[in-house]
Amino acid sequence: MAVNPLKSKPQLVKDFWPRFKRGAVVIIIVLQLLILVALAALLTTSGFFDDNPLGFAATLVAQSVLGIVASVVIYHLVARPMKHLLSALVHVAGEPTNIAPPNPNETRFEKNGFKPVLQTIYQLASDVKDPIEEGAQSAQSAIGPQAQITQPSVQSVLSSALDQAICGFVVLNQQHQIIYASKAAPLKVDTNGVQSLDLIFNDNDTIETWWAECEQTAVHAEKTWPRIPNKLPNEEDRRFFDVIATYNKGTESEMVITLIDRTHLYEVGEAELDFIAFAAHELRGPITVIRGYIDVLSDELSTVLQEDQKELFRRLAVSANRLSGYINNILNTSRYDRRHLRMHLAETTVNAVYDTIRDDMSLRASSQNRMLSVSIPEGLPTIAADTASLGEVFGNLIDNAIKYSNEGGAIEVNAASKGDFVEWIVSDHGIGMPASVVSNLFQKFYRSHRSRETVAGTGIGLYISKAIVESHGGSISVRSEDGRGSTFIVSLPTYKTVADKLKAGNNGNETLISSEGSWIKNHNMYRG
Amino acid sequence: MAIKTILIVEDDRFIGEMYVRSLKKAGYEVDWMVDGNDGLIAARNKPYDLVLLDVMLPERRGTEVLEALRGTEDLIPNSKVIVLTNFEQDDESRMAMESRADAYLIKAEITPSKLLSVIEQLN
User: Fold this and answer.
1) What is the domain count for chain A?
2) Which of A166, A246, A421, B87 has the fewest CB atoms inside 10 Å of its own CB, making it the most exposed?
3) Which carries the bigger pLDDT value, residue A422 or residue A513?
4) By the 8 A CB rule, do A227 and A267 touch?
5) Is A302 on the interface with B (CB under 8 A)?
């Protein structure tokens, strides 16, 4: 019979058996009738009917009874394995049926050797996930007959395809529960058996907080979080993902999250960071010795050295100190760029911070013939600062003032209380800058055309200074006039205004910064 | 209690000699060990007023020495500890050391005369 593709009713395995049975019964009856007719004709022509009509009738009856019994017995013997095979197939195909599937462990199957046949069928069915079976399962929940045919296969193809993808996919419903996650998605299960994404976001910048924002403001939105790790540094199998979330208000799959595994890309950065930590150790070793021995020698030789020789020692000291400062700048810039720069903020004063670099700065200014005058008033409000980092900022700004002013020029350092902020101000009367330079000043590696030719520098001092100041929740600004000099102002929040946030945030700067809502908020992670 | 005896645990010969020289000149009694094991033994055998401890040490890291000295119980209750390192530790280990030491200094930032003033402040 030709298969009609337009026929809406699907052909089922179980339909075959009744049809086969009907055909077999019809054939048995027809054959018996033919045998009877042939026998009657034979006996009639041989004259048996005329001689003994009673015997003739008895022969025909006996033949028909025996023939039918023999046929039925043969039919049963031959067709029974076929019947079991078919009901096993109906079972593995998942078609609805009332007949119990044949059990391969029954003694009769063991005796007649049919057991391995059934076992093979069941084995095959469990090895290969039968598309018909999947279809039958989801067909129960499907709505229309059309869906019964198309949707199941698309679903299974999709999920197996997504499982093979390197990217992870996670779908969440409106109740923020995970309703689908592909194999590559990093998941964790809590003690209540609830699945969630196993990722370490920065501070409060998580999918959940963004989702809450979206629920208030958006219908359709998308956001990307780059470089999100699933584990802390030094843990095994640490992976990095770029996370892309797509929000569709009110739909069944309200949040779709795509996770792109970028470990190969980002772990290079991690290795570089390790390298920089070791390189810093190597560079700082010789610097320790140079600075230390200059210190020891100039002290021990102070009675015998001539005044000009002492000046040479001061220059050695100043140069070694500057070298040390540059190495700190490079270290901090590399940490900052990899989001590993972290401040340890504690209550202090700008005066106390400046004290840590005061001698160095005086020496630096005097050895280069600059008039450095520092007037930081007593009794300024305290600030929350990482002393070493803020000292670097102050050092960088004074270093710049020295570099970009003239021999014998005056440099003033002041401080003042201004509302909830303390301002630390350094002014020079040097070459100054035009407005076009000021706007680019805090970019990494930026050096003005003019200074590139005349003044040495790396172009990272102001870049990292801005980063450090903003990590304190403060800001840095500049006023400059071409040919008249520049004034840099570091504005830092008073300790009083940030104390509560600091206490809540374990003295790190993350809570402080995220509350400021500034661009630096992703830049204060652990050091790796 | 005034600081008088000092143990230096430092593997770099240049840096170790530098500290020994300037500290002795300033009138302190100084012992110097070059690896972590010897440093730990010395610190446990003699009650120093101050231990200057490097981090990157052979045999036993400074972190382990400090853990052994002040981890579960304080074996040197009458001593002060200054950690001196040039190594960029990760935050967790650095904070662990800071919590057990009296000061944590970057060697490259500390000249012998600054070290003397830090010791003065600890007094």
Assistant:
1) 3
2) A166
3) A422
4) no
5) no
